[in-house]
Design goal:
Largest sheet: 6 strands, parallel
Shape: elongated
CATH architecture of the largest domain: 3-Layer(aba) Sandwich
Number of strands: 10
Radius of gyration: 19 Å
Mean pLDDT: 91
């Protein structure tokens, strides 16, 4: 379902949170002080929603309406519950393939990854509620509409998702240069979840430690890194190659 992308006003945003709308980010005017704004901030913290404190000029650019110091971006898609998604996939597929994105922040990279995920038969993408790239109109456009086709689940912490997947019999493979194993040394012929890290920091050390395996791409040139969406595509297509044999 394609929803409106923006709401404004403290009460409207509060109601959206209480109604469990898929809110990606909330912009709050710096210095805003009132009982209602404090109630909003409490709800934002409780639900771990992305928040930015901005000058009023920023809010005025976001909307010409009476925003009362608050504007929220609504996701154009509905998100899935991790447990329900994994259970549904495991019931229908012998070799599921999931993708976890650890703090990926660029919406266009996110969109490109979703597009590749759809093309390679990924059963679900898992992102963190706070700090992850939002699903915006740019994300949907870059994904060529794949954002409406690949289930996306939001979790409080990626590490908890790793543990849940492992408990469900799914191996977690982290894409990182901090290993001697290349993707050609790793078997993808099992229920698998691939972890891709953020553009600048890579995968969190705690998630690397929790992973079942780590794998890297061999880099033969002088530049020692690939764009994350390109690296993700190589990992996913290696899984496809192995499974097609």
């Amino acid at each position: 379902m394609h929803k409106t992308s923006q709401i404004y006003g403290i009460r409207a945003v509060l109601e959206a949170i209480n109604s469990e709308e898929s809110i990606d980010k909330i912009f709050i005017q710096r210095g805003l002080k009132s009982d209602l704004s404090q109630e909003l901030e409490s709800a934002v913290r409780k639900n771990q929603i992305n928040i930015s404190y901005v000058p009023i000029e920023k809010l005025n650019r976001l909307t010409k309406n009476n925003h009362q110091g608050v504007v929220a971006n609504i996701s154009p898609i509905s998100f899935h519950q991790l447990e329900e998604l994994v259970e549904t996939v495991l019931e229908s597929k012998k070799l599921p393939l999931f993708l976890l994105l650890d703090q990926l922040s660029d919406v266009r990279n996110f969109g490109a990854i979703i597009r590749t995920a759809e093309c390679t038969g990924v059963d679900g993408i898992i992102i963190q509620k706070k700090g992850a790239a939002p699903v915006t109109s740019d994300t949907v456009k870059t994904s060529a509409g794949a954002a409406f086709k690949v289930p996306i689940a939001k979790v409080d912490h990626i590490k908890d998702a790793v543990f849940y997947l492992q408990a469900s019999g799914i191996q977690v493979i982290s894409a990182t240069e901090k290993t001697e194993n290349t993707i050609y040394d790793v078997s993808f012929n099992a229920p698998i979840a691939i972890v891709m890290g953020s553009e600048d920091r890579g995968i969190s050390p705690s998630i690397l430690k929790a992973s079942d395996q780590m794998a890297k791409l061999p880099l033969l040139g002088e530049i020692q890194s690939l764009n994350v969406s390109v690296a993700c595509a190589v990992f996913l297509y290696e899984a496809v190659r192995q499974r097609m044999k």
